[in-house]
Write the structure tokens for this entry.
Amino acid sequence: MLALDFPSRDVRGILSELQSLAVGVKVGFPITLSLGFDGVREIIRDFPDYYWIADYKLADIPEVVQYILEGLKRVGFDASIIHLFTGHRRYDVGMELIGVVAMSHPEAKFFRGNFEKLLDEAELLGVDGIVVGATRPEMIREARRRLPNVRIFSPGVGAQGAEPGSAIAAGADFEIVGRSILGSENPRLEAMRVVEAQRGVIHGRS
Ligand code: 3DU
């Protein structure tokens, strides 16, 4: 999946080029600040085959989260990322929910002590997916054991150091890649490299 953070190039061109290589696109504040929600809505409308994830990492009281989720659904998103540490009620939005359990960046030290509790919260809330950083393969393995039916999304591949395919090898369902593709001279070629590494894992070649 592509993390479409920085609109350094022609966004539509990149989305067209990656259609056969990426199954989803994650959109957050960086690109929304430049395109606005109307711009994001138009892009989602023009590329309906991607699984569109709203990554605004929601962390608020349930009434506010419910209201925001309804708005994001109207923008056209298929799923939304929420923080789990705030605690939640069940939401009625017709949209998949993905809870943050363990972030990939080195500064994310608080996730280590709270990992088990956040997994408990993900289970209690019945989320469809969780985020576990690709740089933390031992946590991916543990999350896969604990929540066998929940999809695991792993950012941190490429720019943050995790090798393409490594999170999938540990049990993740999807790897999320941003800068190493967006910042590349040839995004399609870079995405092919990632997909080829993932295929290698799936076919047991690595
Ligand atoms: O490092 P990259 O450029 O490949 O981008 C990673 C993306 O994943 C980026 O959009 C960042 O916001 C997101 N992310 C998480 O959601 C959670 C993490 O633990 C790490 C990155």
Q: What stands out?
A: The chain has a mean pLDDT of 95. The CA atoms of residues 180 and 205 lie 23 Å apart. The first helix runs from residue 11 to 17.
